[in-house]
Amino acid sequence: MRKFIVAAAAATVALGAAAPAFAQDQVNAPFTGVRIEALAGWDHANVESNGIGGKKDGFAYGGAVGYDVERSGAVLGIEGEVTGSTAKQNAYNLQVAGDHARLSAGRDLYIGGRIGFPVTPTTLLYVKGGYTNARVGIDYDSSVLSLRDHRNLDGYRVGAGVEHRMPHNTYVKAEYRYSNYSHDDQNNLDLERHQILAGVGMRF
């Protein structure tokens, strides 16, 4: 979590310094500026801990903010994102008859960069990558014990997408991304995920 805060602060400073230098190019650079967007789509998570878990589909949702600069036929950007997911994995009768364990994908924080190339005046193809921090919920219930806990995992994300400009400074996008998170030795916990998300946003 501390890594995420430091990275976000550094990105904010960098964007603040860069914005004045590129403001004069914004009129002729339609993919330049601050943007905000809402995201939703498919989350395919593979989460395992001590024999519990496996592959599970869910619904991912959230939002992002970013800043892009278009120059010399390329678009460079930085973005931050917060998402959640409905993906859960349940197991029964693990330790004693009638017990119930559940692993659930929680909030996901991301900060990273992207590089894109306009293929038409209104369509941008891009690739992206950066740091991500995911939370996994761990619940266990039996007749004698009830446990609620969570673990935060650091990882990386890579992806690619297409963005299309719409009227009134709005845009739509579609994106695939893959995320892989560090192993938690204490709980023998692993997480990776594939996601396909759609987004709608506005550029300022």
Description:
- With 204 residues, the chain is mainly beta.
- The protein has one domain (2-203): Porin, CATH 2.40.160.20.
- The protein has one helix and nine strands; from the N terminus they run αβββββββββ.
- Strands 1-2-3-5-6-7-8-9 form an eight-stranded antiparallel beta barrel.
- The chain is elongated, with a radius of gyration of 20 Å.
Summarize this entry quickly.
The two termini are 29 Å apart.
The figure for the number of domains is 1
| Content-based structural category | mainly beta
Strand order of the largest sheet: 1-2-3-5-6-7-8-9
Largest sheet: 8 strands, antiparallel, barrel
Number of helices: 1
Number of strands: 9
Outline type: elongated
* Proportion of beta-strand residues: over 45%
What helical percentage do the residues reach? 10-25%
Task: Summarize the topology.
Layout: H1 2-23, E1 33-49, E2 52-71, E3 74-85, E4 88-92, E5 100-120, E6 123-141, E7 146-165, E8 170-181, E9 189-203
Antiparallel strand pairs: 1-2, 1-9, 2-3, 3-5, 4-5, 5-6, 6-7, 7-8, 8-9
